[in-house]
Amino acid sequence: MAPSSSAKQLIAVAGAAFLLATAVAFLLAADSGRPQPVHLRLYMHDVMRGPGTTAIHLIHGVRPPHDVERSAYFGDTAAIDDVVTEEPDAGARAVGRVQGTYMLASQHEEVLAVAVTVVLTAGPYSSSTFSVAGRVGVYDDKAEPAVFGGTGRLRRAAGYLTWRMVELVVSEGYVMVELDVHMSVPPVSAAGGNWWSSLLRSIN
């Protein structure tokens, strides 16, 4: 017995709905394969003396004093474990740490070679990290060290940040640095193609 016209219409509608749902799912899967942009604005608090010290002098250069920074020497290196906040205020809630080293990398300019990891402890990227390395002019508002990897929700992050000193209190050995981070994070897995193949196999 041939199906009635109403049954044919029902089958056609169901088929169209299935194809539409499949197309939407495919587009969502394809979109999930795109790197996701991440923008963070953080403030790093570097304290070089006093009870709350977060930066220590590891290596003292042995050559003549630096051409500009007369109290410093080429090769001077510090280790840091600086507090990070989302507000430009040392008393604001901590959302992470900046851990690593920086070195006076030029004999004639006020330039640091920076190699640090930003460890996030609050917010949507809590327990995630990203790594930063590059050349930073101490008083340069346009320094752009690279973001070259991460962990957790920031795994395989890539991008850059602007490193800008926003406050310096010489008498207290305190520096606040703004980190304006622009990076992209690839999806956890590029499973779109596998999902589509599995769906086709299940239909066939």
Automatic annotation (TrEMBL):
Gene3D superfamilies for the chain: Allene oxide cyclase-like
This protein's GO CC annotations: apoplast
InterPro entries, alphabetized: Allene_oxi_cyc_Dirigent, Dirigent
Organism: Panicum virgatum
Keyword Cell wall biogenesis/degradation among record annotations: no
Job of this protein: Dirigent proteins impart stereoselectivity on the phenoxy radical-coupling reaction, yielding optically active lignans from two molecules of coniferyl alcohol in the biosynthesis of lignans, flavonolignans, and alkaloids and thus plays a central role in plant secondary metabolism.
GO biological process assignments: phenylpropanoid biosynthetic process
Family: Belongs to the plant dirigent protein family.
Protein name in the entry: Dirigent protein
Subunit comment: Homodimer.
